From TrEMBL, chain B:
This is Cytochrome (Ubi)quinol oxidase subunit III. PANTHER family: CYTOCHROME C OXIDASE SUBUNIT 3, CYTOCHROME C OXIDASE SUBUNIT III. It is a multi-pass membrane protein. Belongs to the cytochrome c oxidase subunit 3 family. Keywords: Cell membrane, Membrane, Transmembrane, Transmembrane helix. Pfam families: COX3. Residues 1-206 form the Heme-copper oxidase subunit III family profile domain. PROSITE patterns: COX3 (PS50253). The chain crosses the membrane at residues 28-51, 71-91, 103-121, 141-165, 185-205. InterPro entries: Cyt_c/ubiquinol_Oxase_su3 (IPR024791), Cyt_c_oxidase-like_su3 (IPR000298), Cyt_c_oxidase_su3-like_sf (IPR035973), Cyt_c_oxidase_su3_a-hlx (IPR013833), Ubiquinol_oxase_su3_dom (IPR033946). It is found in: Cell membrane.
Automatic annotation (TrEMBL), chain C:
The gene is ctaD. Pathway: Energy metabolism; oxidative phosphorylation. It catalyses: 4 Fe(II)-[cytochrome c] + O2 + 8 H(+)(in) = 4 Fe(III)-[cytochrome c] + 2 H2O + 4 H(+)(out). Belongs to the heme-copper respiratory oxidase family. It is a multi-pass membrane protein. The keyword Cell inner membrane does not apply. This is Cytochrome c oxidase subunit 1. Cytochrome c oxidase is the component of the respiratory chain that catalyzes the reduction of oxygen to water. Subunits 1-3 form the functional core of the enzyme complex. CO I is the catalytic subunit of the enzyme. Electrons originating in cytochrome c are transferred via the copper A center of subunit 2 and heme A of subunit 1 to the bimetallic center formed by heme A3 and copper B.
Amino acid sequence: MKGLKKWRLFGLLAALTIFLSGCGEEYLSTLTPGGTVAKEQYKLLLLTSVIMLLVIIVVVIIYVLVIVKFRRKKVGENTIPKQVEGSHILEIIWTAIPIVLLLIIAVPTVSLTYELADTKAMEAKDENGNATAVTVNVTAKLYWWEFEYPEQGIITAQELVVPTGEKVYFNLKAADVKHSFWIPAIGGKLDTNVDNINTFYLTFDKESDSLKDGVFYGKCAELCGPSHALMDFKVKTLSKDNFDTWVKNMQATKGKKADKNSTDLGEQVFANSCISCHAVSGEGTAAIYPNLATFGDRNRVAGFIEHSEEGIKDWIKNSQKLKPGNLMPVEKDLNKGKEFTDEELDALAAYLMGLSVEK
Amino acid sequence: MDLKTKFTPQSWPAHPENATLEGKNKTLGFWIFLGGETVLFATLFATFLALKNKGPNGMEFSTQSLFELPLAFIMTMLLLTSSLTSVYAMYHMKNHNFKAMQAWIAVTVVLGLGFLGLEIYEFYHYVHLGFTFTQSAFGSSFYTLVGTHGLHVIIGLAWFILLMLRNSKRGLNLYNAPKYYLASLYWHFIDVVWVFIFTVVYLMGVLD
Amino acid sequence: MSSTAKKKGFGATIWDYLTTVDHKKIAVLYLIAGTLFFVIGGIEAMLIRIQLAEPNNDFVSAGLFNEIITMHGTTMIFLAAMPLLFAFMNAAVPLQIGARDVAFPFLNSLGFWLFLFGGLFLNLSWFLGGAPDAGWTSYASLSLASPTHGIDFYALGLQISGAGTLIAGINFLVTIINMRAPGMTYMRMPLFTWTTFVASALILFAFPPLTVGLFFMIFDRMFDANFFDHLNGGNTIIWEHLFWIFGHPEVYILVLPAFGLFSEIFATFSRKRLFGYSSMVFATILIGFLGFMVWAHHMFTVGLGPTANAIFAVATMAIAVPTGMKVFNWLLTIWGGNIKVTTPMLYGLGFIPSFVAGGVTGVMQASAPLDYQLHDSYFIVAHFHYVIVGGIVLALFAAAHYYWPLMFNQMLNETLGKITFVFFFVGFHCTFFIQHFLGLMGMPRRVFTYQGDQGWDLFNYISTIGAFLMAIGVILLVVNVIITAIKGEPAGRDPWKDGRTLEWAIPQPVPYYNFKQTPLVRGLDTFWIEKMEGNKEGMTYAEPISDIHMPNNSFIPFMISFGLFVAAFGALYHQDADKAWSLPVLIAGLAITFLSMIVRSLKDDLGYHIHKEELMNEKGGKK
């Protein structure tokens, strides 16, 4: 009997796993965990789901029996049922069993709560005084994300690049209003408050180039204004070696600038209209507006628009329509009161697509 | 309820505030209301403690630099004494001695006005120094907590004064006895809140 | 004055309702106003679902969408669910405990008008520059940044209606403590009265933190205070705490009376006393108590640290125990009974599995590390709609059918009622079940649109279809009300035939003084006891017929509330430099309020008596 019960439980669990993992996309779904944190949370999801399904099954069995057995049609129009006061034994049973079930959930809950909050290793240093772990300072701003790597002295936006197979630590804060940092396939969210810095870690198990878009999807999970829905970011996970190379390439962009006198029309336009807000060197610290050093390597324009020259032009021309409330100036304000010519736009888009550290 | 019944100290019930159903309801309702008020002040205290001394970078104001215990102590004494005089008033109400009750309430009001005057002086002084409601989170939370108490004092005084004027010709009856009783209950509550303000805001502010 | 049967002119009827202090008429006012706001909130819900039916939809704009979701949540919680529950509390509770009225009839009326004027003020924001757009939670950093007056309407409107709610809560507490008929001990009170009692206590302790939070918001936005401005030392997390210290008990303020209603319905239509009455009472109190210890589970991702999260996680799980007790007690109430599946019972039977589903997802979210994934995703949206729609709205619909004959002496059409149920119930599960999976698949809540091909398209479409089914259900209910009103067949006393509690023992239409003679209560389910003993009158009396004291009608509650409504406009526009009229308006509004209050204090208002002879002659009595 006991064996049978275990088998049933196992069957239920297996069925649930198969059912759940059928749901959602690998780059986005919490049901296809791509890192230790998400996996632990997924296990908790399965555990709680199974226990809760058991509760539901018990309730439903009693419920169906009641409805089938005690309808007035069956019992008789004039029957007065026995007026039962209650039952102490039953009360004890349905108090004690739920308590046991809740304890089964509470133990892993508490231990995992502490485990996921353990960010002591952020401070660890090797013998040269360098931090042993990768730390990213995330700043959420009105509808875009800034990722600063303080140890490496580099900075990027909209697309987080991280190494696989190790704990990556995050310092989270918001620059204007509250947002929340969430990569569903990698792990639960943590709010970016305006008042303080929150820290946590995530791990990334696999390299993202095998995914549909080559990236994991990240979301803003706290209502932050009209374009909250469009405040997406992407996560590129690289092997440790590739990550180190990427960091070196980023550092190598030190001092890169758009030149007003360049022969490239796109670079000229950028130098005249864009450079006051957007840097093209990935070396440095936090800025006010998105860094574009890796623009050509990215997966989306402005977090959600198709990454193509057409997408860039659309964004420059219609940024307020596409992402209401964002802080990008309208086209005329960028170009001394005039719209860009088609030629200028084409060149600018081509220049932006060429901003790359990976090609 | 019959207003025409004339009471003598002998026929006057021992608990006039609870002698009618309306009176009973009012007394209970008011106690319950004070329960809600307690939560309200608890929330204000919690906020004050969270925002105490918090302000823009380099703010010069702090509880130590601002508050002066002697003034707060005098205010405390005024309010505590007024609580005592309102007890005398209630003592005379229970004995159906209308004139003495009115007189003691008048003393209570005078003491309350004294407290209020000192509080206004205190606020005026701080504003003069530049410590205003809008200057910092500390300022906002301080003025809101102490100001809400001050507002309660004003309401309590207005209540007492209205009662005294309204009933000066009518005398004491079972319709207005609960009202006097509740006004004095309110006054005690205000007093208790002040004791907490004195401790949490002033004493703890200056000492630690 | 003597009889309600007299035909009155339309104007006189309106005046009667504007000045009434009768709990039965105030119940009708709450019902009408609550329904109005429920329909408004429902239309907002439909706009949300239409917008989300397909990816990249542009049915409504991003900014407007945020206004709609904010108003949907705020309206449904504050202006629909609570008043509708107050409607049934007012209609039933005084009768259930054998009282002639509530303890404070004047305050009862004041509570209603404050709620109505607060609700109107909030909804006027649609026409005056834009509704609030920071979500019903109105988190401080976003709400301070919001450029329109929307948030000001939110803060001031909720402040006014919140005062009304607090007054109503105190009123019910005193009524239930002081006004019970002889023999109606605490442990003989019907469960709806018990849950009203506990919910009122929760109102008493939960609303002051909201009041304070809203004042901070008002001060910060309108008077340059710095409670939430972190650059001046403020802290936005304070708002989150205050909001949820109120917000979580609020859930129980709503759901406990719903539990009470279903407890009545299950017992009635199973012809069986409530199983485990005393443990039901205990569970109600325990839920109310624990409701105050768990607010931070709404803030697991705020970064309060692992210790706080762990404590609040475990405390939250604990609530599942008394709630589970209730579910099993309901099941055992029906077990061995004689079930008649009327429309209210049908809602009850629909409620059990729906609410259990909503409850278990609550336990899942209580597990803090799991909640890091679920929080602010569509899983949460699914969860709280399962609790609120599957628990509270089903209870409201059930109660509408159940108490309609008590309130209007008419029976809603049963067949149509059942059809309504089917549409609403199927639509509800169709809308929200699937949203659990949307959340797990990474869809955040409060998004005005989404990109296609993220695996969310189909489920969102199905969800929208469900919303339309629910809308059909609501329309059918309205149709049912209209048909019933036109037919106008009197339902008579004890129309369900299986009534157990005092409210069914009273003749129909209910006399305006309720009980000619105060009843003597001889046990739980008084009316049932009398019926079983063959007492045709349905009541044993505790007193001979004698004069009844009644309160006078008053227009003052309306004026007090109206004054605050006017003052709120002054406060709101005070911050605009170009509106010099705002300060006089603020002062004038407050003057109206305070003058009305002073008039009330200075006047002797002793009520009147219905004399014994009058009562003896009256037809509405026992025969």
